[in-house]
Design brief:
This protein is mainly α and 92 residues long. 67% of the residues lie in helices and 0% in strands. It is built from 4 helices and no strands. The chain is globular, with a radius of gyration of 15 Å.
Length: 92
């Protein structure tokens, strides 16, 4: 059985274009590779469910900082750094 929710790169690009058009965003406002790398690093360093949540937090932090592409990069870098250094709390 295949997972129909997995998008080939061109489908992801098309979806990003739909979002940019709907919300009046420039291409540099939607850094696909940066966000996918963030999701990967968080999923591997923390847990898979933490990836979308962390991407949301990155957007929230960037928006509160002004929302410029540099604000997005700074928020993503901070969260990536936390994820790469994260150690699961001891369960005992």
């Amino acid at each position: 059985m295949t997972d129909d929710r997995t998008l080939p790169p061109e489908a992801l690009d098309a979806w990003a274009a739909v979002l940019r058009e709907r919300f009046g965003l420039a291409e540099e406002d939607v850094p696909i590779t940066l966000i996918l790398d963030l999701a990967r690093d968080v999923a591997q360093g923390v847990a898979r469910p933490a990836a979308p949540f962390s991407a949301f937090v990155a957007g929230l932090v960037a928006g509160r900082a002004g929302g410029a592409p540099g604000d997005v990069r700074a928020a993503v870098a901070a969260i990536t750094g936390l994820a790469l250094a994260y150690r699961q709390p001891d369960a005992g």
